[in-house]
Design brief:
Blueprint (H helix, E strand, L loop, with lengths): L4 E2 L7 H8 L7 E2 L9 E5 L8 E7 L2 E6 L2 H12 L9 E4 L4 E7 L8 H14 L3 E5 L21 H13 L3 E5 L7 H4 L19 H15 L6 E3 L12 H6 L4 H18 L3 E5 L1 H6 L15 H5 L6 E5 L6 H15 L4 E3 L12 H17 L4 E5 L14 H12 L5 H12 L3 H7 L6 E4 L2 E4 L7 H7 L17 H14 L10 H13 L2 H10 L3 H33 L5 H27 L6 H4 L14 H5 L6
Helix pairs in contact: 1-4, 2-14, 3-4, 3-13, 3-14, 6-8, 11-12, 12-13, 13-14, 15-17, 17-18, 18-20, 19-20, 20-21
């Protein structure tokens, strides 16, 4: 039975009152005094430190939460909600991080509705998050620029103000997060911006029109927020200076182009009273002979470093390394080369897939945050991304966020503690979300035995769903093995976790996805085998029992995915997902018709089934839709 807590709002510090009121509907809080309900009171701990601390102190008259920052008070509540028996002794947590943040993807088609941003903010607050960024490449309103976020679900200024005000009640600082150099293909594709495009993805440095637009962008993105910090992006500007810039100004050293642009953008920020931060990978890529961000032997000339504006912060993003030693080395390189402590950003591993890869996220976050603590890093935030169409449910990252905050506050993650804290912040068992992430873990061979590989970041469910049922480009990677039993078992496990009225309802999507993959994963293999044996009886049976059943289940999955999208994101961008389902359904219908024609003797062959398929690389990896669905050109 859930334990409830009484909070007397009139006695609550004013800075907590509005935020606590927002928790009533979803969490065990009541504002009416009852005999059997313990009372929770709050008091501020005077502290000179900017980092966080709280104490949960049980006593005869109830529970007193003593806190330093507002975010600490809400994390304390999350801890309290997760304890079924309550705390018998004083419970204390201290973090050395000033920033414990999350960046929410809002550009790769899926733009979260305001209500869903708020829903995430409530849960983040109970985890201890005190900073949130909405990653918006073009999905925010810029006055005088109608093509900015055009038909893409852009946020209005009023929507961002509403989000900022809501976050402030929960002790969360909202920071504008945009792009001011690369990752701007969505804008630069419109003819009106052709004069300020270096390449199809990168702005034209040195052009006055570029900085006139950037001034508008920075003002529009930052004005809705209270914060005087802004993330101005500038990552992955591959090909900087090689397009229209080169035609206008000739070939220039990339370092110099980068610094010239950063200076101008920092001037705009300075004028607006903002302190910028950038993803710092370009300085490391330019200094690497292999254009590798993580090159330990990179070289950046001293005059380049001296030419970088001093009032910019650097964000070191790293989602890939499994040993904390590497993070420590690279943090030192940042300090030694750029001359300042970086903000560190690990990843939630939700991109390019249908559900966050939680096992891999846990491994990389733990290694990264352990190093951050050892190196005295003060600011860190967890990134979420929606690469390749935002097929995933953004709520699937919640366990990764909880794991991240545990590392920030405790420096270690114990299984039972993680479960309790997640139950306190999200109101459900963490295991359902973790089970869903197994959809990308397929059995592989190791020492002659089948094992489920827990440490490989590939997106098996994605290519098992989208691989064309006639062509079968990815068929060789199955090695003739069947994954049907694995996905049938997964769907059964997920069905048991779904309950109405809470966040476990979101498991309906991965549940039905697993059902579809269980049917689809062996279809082509079995059809080709029967075809090559000229076993028309078997083909007829497979057509009736598997192909027709699959068409029916894919149609159900499409509608479930569509509903998940419409419940989570603005409707713009859904067309990309639906085009993919439409393609799959059409190809399955085509497969059905071709099989019927072959079985009846109307056609004499199915050439796709006679083609020898090649394994074009070793191992597994995460690939994107257009490379999975066909070897031909698409879009």
């Amino acid at each position: 039975m859930e334990r409830n807590y009484f909070i007397d709002l009139e006695r609550v510090p004013k800075e907590l009152r509005c935020g606590i009121e927002e928790l009533k509907e979803e969490h065990p809080v009541t504002f009416k005094r009852r005999k059997d309900t313990p009372e929770v009171s709050f008091s501020v701990v005077p502290a000179e430190r900017e980092e966080g601390c709280f104490h949960i102190m049980p006593g005869e008259r109830g529970i007193n939460i003593r806190y330093v920052r507002v975010s600490d008070a809400f994390r304390a509540l999350g801890c309290l909600f997760g304890q079924r028996e309550g705390f018998k002794n004083t419970y204390t947590e201290i973090t050395n991080f000033k920033m414990v943040g999350v960046m929410l993807e809002s550009s790769r088609n899926g733009v979260l509705t305001v209500d869903n941003v708020k829903a995430l903010l409530r849960r983040f607050s109970l985890m201890g998050i005190n900073t949130v960024m909405l990653y918006t490449e073009d999905t925010y309103e810029v006055p005088g620029e109608p093509f900015f976020g055009y038909l893409r679900g852009r946020y209005t200024s009023d929507e961002l103000k509403e989000i900022d005000s809501y976050a402030e009640r929960l002790g969360i600082e909202m920071i504008a997060c945009i792009q001011t150099l690369a990752h701007l293909s969505q804008i630069l594709k419109w003819p009106v911006y052709s004069k300020i495009a270096d390449t199809q993805d990168i702005l034209l440095v040195g052009q006055e029109e570029t900085y006139q637009l950037l001034e508008k962008m920075i003002k529009a993105a930052s004005n809705p927020y209270r914060s005087k910090r802004i993330h101005i992006g500038m990552d992955e500007a591959h090909g900087l200076g090689t397009g229209q810039y080169k035609k206008l100004y000739g070939e220039k050293r990339t370092f110099d182009i980068m610094n010239k642009h950063l200076k101008r953008v920092c001037e705009i920020c300075r004028k607006a009273g903002l302190r910028p931060m950038i993803w710092d990978d370009m300085y490391f890529r330019i200094g690497s002979k292999t254009n590798d961000y993580y090159d330990l032997n990179l070289q950046v000339p001293e005059e380049v470093i001296k030419d970088i504006p001093q009032d910019v912060d650097f964000v070191y993003w790293d989602y890939y390394h499994l040993d904390s030693e590497f993070y420590s080395k690279f943090i030192d390189i940042h300090k030694n080369i750029l001359g300042k402590e970086p903000i560190v950003a690990p990843g939630a591993w939700n991109w390019g897939r249908f559900w966050a890869d939680l096992p891999y996220a846990y491994l990389t976050i733990e290694a990264c945050m352990r190093s951050c603590r050892e190196k005295g890093i003060k600011e860190a935030f967890l990134t979420t991304w929606g690469d390749d169409g935002m097929e995933n449910d953004i709520f699937s990252v919640l366990p990764a966020v909880q794991f991240f905050t545990e590392m920030a506050y405790s420096g270690k993650v114990e299984r039972e503690t993680l479960k309790a804290k997640f139950a306190g912040s999200c109101g459900i068992d963490i295991e359902g979300y973790e089970i869903a992430s197994r959809m990308d873990i397929i059995p592989c061979e190791k020492d002659g035995n089948k094992v489920e590989k827990e440490d490989t970041a590939f997106n098996a469910a994605k290519w098992l769903l989208w691989d064309d049922p006639l062509i079968g480009l990815y068929e060789p990677f199955k090695g003739g093995r069947s994954f049907r039993e694995k996905y049938e078992r997964l769907s059964i496990q997920l069905k048991k976790e779904i309950r109405k009225g809470d966040l476990s309802e979101r498991l309906l999507f991965p549940y039905h996805l697993s059902k579809v993959i269980a049917i689809k994963c062996d279809i082509r293999k079995n059809l080709v085998d029967a075809y090559k044996k000229n076993d028309r009886k078997k083909l007829r049976k497979l057509l009736k029992e598997d192909v027709e059943a699959l068409i029916k289940e894919v149609r159900k999955l499409w509608k479930i995915h569509r509903q998940m999208w419409l419940d989570t994101y603005k409707p713009f961008g859904l067309e990309v997902i639906e085009i993919r389902y439409g393609g799959l359904i059409t190809r399955l219908e085509s497969l059905k018709d071709r099989l019927e024609g072959y079985i009846s003797g109307e056609i004499s062959s199915i050439p796709e089934f006679e083609t020898h398929l090649l394994k074009f690389r070793e191992g597994y990896w995460a690939d994107i839709y257009r490379k999975i669905v066909t070897p031909s050109s698409i879009f």
